Amino acid sequence: MKNILKINSKYIMVGATLALTVLGSCSKDFLEETTFGEVSPSEITKAENVEKAIISAYSVLNGQIDGASNAYNSPASNWSFGDVVSDDCYKGGGGTGDQNQIHQMELYNTTPATYDVERKWMALFEGVKRTNEAMKLLNASEDFDASLKTQRTGELRFLRGHYYFELKKIYGQIPYIDETAETVSDYARSNTEFTSAEIWAKIEADFQAAYDVLPSSQEEVGRPTDLAAMAYLAKAYLFQEKWQDVFDATTIVMGGNYGLMEDFQSVFLPENDNGQEVIFAVQYSVNDGQGSNYNGSIGDRLTAPGGPFYSQYGFHRPTQNLVNAFKTNATGLPINDNVDVTETDFVDPRLDITIGRPGIPYKDLEVIYEANWARDLATYGPFGPKKRILSANSPYHVTVWPYVDALNYYIIRYAEVLLWRAEAAVELGNLEEARTLVNQIRERAANSEYVQALDGSGDAAKYNIGTYDTVWTDAIDAMEKVRMESRLELAMEGHRFFNLVRWGIAKEVIDDYLEVEKTKRTHLTNAAFTQGKNEYWPIPQEYIDSVDEGLVTQNNGY
């Protein structure tokens, strides 16, 4: 059984109440009686209640705000924000009218009033608010154990760093509010009060402060460690192209106890999802007494692939372009020609671990994935998600509505750290180290268990993956190889679009993708990426309307 940081509805509700009580409490005589589910001001800083406020700050990691059932509009996995708007995935579902606002996102027609844009903003700033309020309660508590207080402060700094990192990479120029906020109005701030560099510095400071005080291990694995904080600091450096800092930070992380698991497919099993490769994850659980399994992967519940074992929600569908990216040559290296894969082609074995393809067995169900599993096949093609979908035989899989499971979402895993370091190595001129790092990941894929044909005849497809055995001497070519490996290794994990943006190639890649994909998928006919606009989402109109006029500057193009 997973030893996780338990987040239940009682703690979420009490924690939210604690935050609201601090922001606006009253002392009238007729209000002195404590309402059921609330905590009186005299009790609010007691250690047990402060712990509940801290748990409340964790609880928003899964995208929940005021109702768990619609967390798919603010998913922790960023499947809509990081995959659907990239060359990796289509929206899917029951046609373009089903969750049409996400369809508009994949056409790059997002507006400041787009529902998901508002929900994601709300979820992340709810995390910021709860974290700030928990910090204040912790500082004010007189009976909280002193040594544990230092650790919990580190956890809260880590959580705030995470929420702001997500806001920064999605929305660009954002308001910044820390624990000095006293009232609700303190959260109605300008998004130009601080420069982009100053916001990054604040994010870095949170992760550095967390690293300085967090322990090297946690009994409750849902809480971050010192190396998790250092890994996140490395990611903050990465997004700013501070290459030496990335290199130095990843050196520290790689000196710890993390490492690649032996088998690629095993990484994405609930029994392993707090294993040696997972540096920090959103903790999920099902069948734990919480109504509608809201502690499970509720933000991903629309991604159920269909077929005889799963509900047919049919979202988060792999593109033909992504499938083609896994094609390899006779030596097992990527071809990257965007020519459709056929049965005679060699393919990277990660293809059929990541994507459901017709003619290939699906999980351990002893059944072939068929094209008719795919909802609205005519619009979105035959492919379905697979990597982060659990076997229907798994006890961590829920078959009833809503479709959820207990597979954690990995915010950072060790393979990413290796790829970040490889990027930094290329930028610093250490091309051979970059080659070694990429080869570590490819070797793991090569040595993993391949998908097998149901008749026992051997591999289900022509799997062939090799390493780069020629010295890398060209930095541009080396970086292309690192970026390709990042796409293959991290496909369908919510990272692709953000990587394209930080690499500065979003316009180029998406234009090339759309030019070909429009000939295959008519729902993309009107898609067009505008450089200088679509790299970031708009500041939600609801936020702009809630603050003083002229206080917020809308992102370019919106």
UniProtKB/TrEMBL annotation:
Gene3D superfamilies in the cross-refs: 1.25.40.390
Record's GO cellular component terms: cell outer membrane
Superkingdom per UniProt: Bacteria
The name this protein goes by in its record: RagB/SusD family nutrient uptake outer membrane protein
InterPro entries: SusD-like_N (IPR033985), SusD_RagB_dom (IPR012944), TPR-like_helical_dom_sf (IPR011990)
Key words, A-Z: Cell outer membrane, Membrane, Signal
Family to which the UniProt record says this protein belongs: Belongs to the SusD family.
Organism: Flagellimonas chongwuensis
Compartments it resides in: Cell outer membrane
Record domain SusD-like N-terminal: where: 103-238
UniProt domain RagB/SusD: residue ranges: 276-558
